[in-house]
Automatic annotation (TrEMBL):
SUPFAM superfamilies: Nucleic acid-binding proteins. Residues 1-68 form the DNA replication/recombination mediator RecO N-terminal domain. It comes from the Bacteria. This is DNA repair protein RecO. Keywords: DNA damage, DNA recombination, DNA repair. The lineage of its organism: Bacteria, Pseudomonadati, Pseudomonadota, Alphaproteobacteria, Sphingomonadales. The keyword DNA repair applies. The keyword Magnesium does not apply. It comes from Alteraurantiacibacter lauratis.
């Protein structure tokens, strides 16, 4: 296995003393997990932040071996993680993507939509500019994985968007996150609480 592609980093997990196992979403190869040597070191720690856009080079001697990856930063989301609402949104959508998608199955529309959503979260002046897109991404994820997700991006005021978000909670939990890490839905609940404060 040899590949080089632009990717969105969606998850990292410590491995040993200094390395990480990272999961990357690529348009052509889908979700790819790989070992990054020195991933917790000073030079790579700012690169390996979920939400970052990267160029990843992955290689493995066999399909049964965890591939090794070399990573170059293309777009950093790190400056926006200091803002609680943006951090909660980025944390939720990257965790959802990493948890729900099967590995090495391409979903180019999800890759494109996730990149656009991350840009919107970081560049919009407020959550009103991206909350509808976040719900639309959840719908697209459900649809791409064969679980419905019908409907259009919710438009209108934030209360209407929150109502659409509430309607998706059960399908996401039941179809995509059942028997998975409980903390993933907790990240969505935290985001929902922060968005609600904007209405009150």
């Amino acid at each position: 296995m040899q590949l080089r592609a632009p990717a969105i980093l969606v998850a990292t997990r410590p491995h040993g003393e200094t390395a990480v196992v990272a999961r990357f979403l690529t348009a052509e190869y889908g979700l790819v997990a790989a070992y990054v040597a020195g991933g917790r070191g000073r030079s790579l720690r700012p690169v390996l932040i979920p939400g970052n856009g990267v160029e990843v080079q992955v290689s493995a001697r066999s399909d049964s071996q965890l591939p090794f990856a070399k990573v170059e930063l293309q777009a950093s989301r790190a400056p926006f993680l200091a803002e609680p609402l943006a951090a909660a949104a980025i944390g939720w959508i990257t965790a959802l993507t990493a948890t729900a998608l099967p590995e090495r199955q391409p979903y180019p529309s999800l890759h494109t939509a996730l990149g656009a959503l991350l840009d919107a979260i970081c560049l919009a002046p407020s959550a009103r500019g991206w909350a509808g897109a976040l719900v639309a991404y959840e719908m697209l994820l459900l649809r791409e994985l064969g679980y419905g997700g019908q409907g259009q991006r919710p438009e209108g005021d934030l209360p209407e968007i929150l109502a659409a978000m509430d309607a998706l909670a059960q399908p996401l939990d039941h179809y995509l996150l059942a028997d998975r890490r409980a903390g993933v839905m907790a990240a969505r609940e935290r985001l929902r609480e922060l968005l609600q404060r904007m209405v009150e």
